[in-house]
Each structure stands twice: as C-alpha cells, then as structure tokens.
Amino acid sequence: MDALPIVFFLGDPYRCERALAERQQALRAADPTVERQARFADEVDVASFDMELQSAPLFALGRHFVVRAVDKARKPKPWAELAAKDLPAGTYVSFLATPDVKSSHPVVKACAARGAVVSLPSPAARGIAQTARGVLAECGLRASSAALESLVARTGGDLLALASEARKLRAYAGSREVDEDDIASLVFPGGEPTAYPFFDRLGERDLPGALRALDELRDDPGRILGGAIRHMTRITTLCVLLRQRVSPSQMADLVSLPDWLLRRLLGQARRFRLEEATAALDLGISLDTEVKSGGRSAIDALLEFVFSVTSPVPPTARG
C-alpha cells in the first residue's frame, strides 16, 4: 500500500487519518526529504494542480500531496482523469473524502480501477466500545467501563473526536485510570446538547432529571416526542424479551445494539412492568397522532408523555 503513487482512503475518518499517517511515515522512512503538502479539492484549480504534479520538484526528492474533500469538488471528472494518470517518480497523492462518499464517485472509480482504494469502514456498533478502549490505550490511558460508556456517549461514537478527548484526558489523568467523574468534568458534547440524556432520564422514570434535561434542549418538541416514542419502543421490546427470559447475549443479536447501550436500556426496562411499558408506548403513539393532526400542541403532548411515563401509576392510552 505504501509504495502506491496514488491512494484513496475511504471510510471512517479516524481510521483514514491513522492510515494516512502510516503512509507518510513509510514514505519518509524511504526518503527522509519527502515533503507533505495539503490541498482541498474544492479550492484547487485541477488543471494547475495537474501541472504541479507532473513537474519535477526543485527542493525535495519526494512529494506527498494530501488532497482532502474530493467529494466536494464541483467538477469531479477532471479529478478522476488526474487520478488515472501516472506520476513522476517520488510523487505521491493521497485522496480523502467525507465518510458518505459513494463508490460510484468518479475519483473513487478511477482509483479502484488501478487498485488504489483502501477501504476502512467504521467499527460495527457492537464493537465501538472495544475500539474506543484501543484508542485510549494508544494514548496510554485506562478507563473504567462506566467511564468508557460515558465517553462513547458524549462523543457519539466518533473515533476522531474520541481520540481528541483522549489526548486531553491523558494530560489531566496521567497514568491513573480514568473514571466517570473525569469524563463528566472534562468531556463535553461537541455541539448542541443531545436528546439522549433526556431519553435516559425518561427511561429511568426520573421526572426531575427528565425535566432538567428537557430544559437544556433547543430542538423541536415534535421531534423530541418522536425520539422519546422510539426510545420507549426499545424499552418495550426489551420488556418483552425479559418476560420471555431471553439471555442478554441473545438480546444483543435480536435488537442489534452495542453491549454498552443494551446494558443501559436493560436497566431502564427493568423499571417497567410489561403492561406499563406497552401502555406508555400506546399513549405516545396516540399523542403523536394528535399532534400531527393538529389536535394538540407538540409541547403539551411531550409534557403529558413525560409526566405519564415517569409516574408510578401506569400511563393510560388515549382512545
């Protein structure tokens, strides 16, 4: 892989960045004078860049061009034509794009035709915790299971964000094990607060906690209600499986959830009798129907759902 003049790294951003760093290291091991130069495809005149690639370097024996945002280029065809060309000795190009770039993209197809696509898919949802533990270990960090789950939740499973947070945690924690308090105090969601803490407090039937989490959200109440109903659907499904005495390992296969999320949701499902969970789900569907038909405001329906689900009295479905 490292000797190829052109490579397209395709897939998970963290894994692509790691592979890019390994390629640069291998090129530099073979030629310590090799230069790394960055370009963005949506900002570069491809004809001028093609001339630069074909010209001999003046001050270095080798050049490694890293071309990002390939899928953002306004005219991908010239880039595909460039990717199909031979390069002068000592000149290397690495293409990167957003994770959702299609295999049918002209540049991907051109690189695939010369066997130069390196596919690096994101880890499966069930394996994200193990992968995250490996990311921490690369920074010399150990973390408790609870801390690891919290870190994955706060970063949304984004390995690139997780690696950035790991470097910050390493400076703070040193060689000791990172605990959940460290995550809570140092790792913050990268953007607007998400609805997941609200969903968890709802599933825990924690009314004060649910209201506090709801107060921090700036999303549309109708969207939040829809998400809460989906969360309640998961809990109801787990209640059914618990009643049928299905083992956690079998549940993981049936519901396709990562182990850490399954454990969290099982803790919430055990707070409901099956009849309570199904009544809550029926109520949520009924409220959602009223909102969509214009019979109720979304915020009123959402609050009724919150109060009903967290009440020790089983919710009553609306007829």
Overall body shape: elongated
Quaternary structure: single chain
Order of helices and strands: EHEHEHEHEHHHHHHHHHHH
Please report which band the strand proportion falls in: under 5%, 5-15%, 15-25%, 25-35%, 35-45% or over 45%: 5-15%
Number of extended strands: 5
Average pLDDT figure = 88
Low-confidence stretches: none
- Measured on Cα atoms, how large is the radius of gyration? 25 Å
Estimate the helix proportion, in percent: 55-70%
What is the straight-line distance between the termini? Answer: 63 Å
Strand order of the largest sheet: 2-3-4-1-5
Structural class: alpha/beta
Describe the largest sheet. Answer: 5 strands, parallel
Helix tally?
Answer: 15
Question: What features would you describe in this structure?
Answer:
The protein is an alpha/beta fold and 319 residues long. It is 56% helix and 9% strand. It has 15 helices and 5 strands. Strand 2 (35-40), helix 2 (46-54) and strand 3 form a beta-alpha-beta unit. Helix 9 packs across helix 11 (221-243). The longest helix is centred in the last third of the chain and has 23 residues, at 221-243. The protein is elongated, with a radius of gyration of 25 Å.
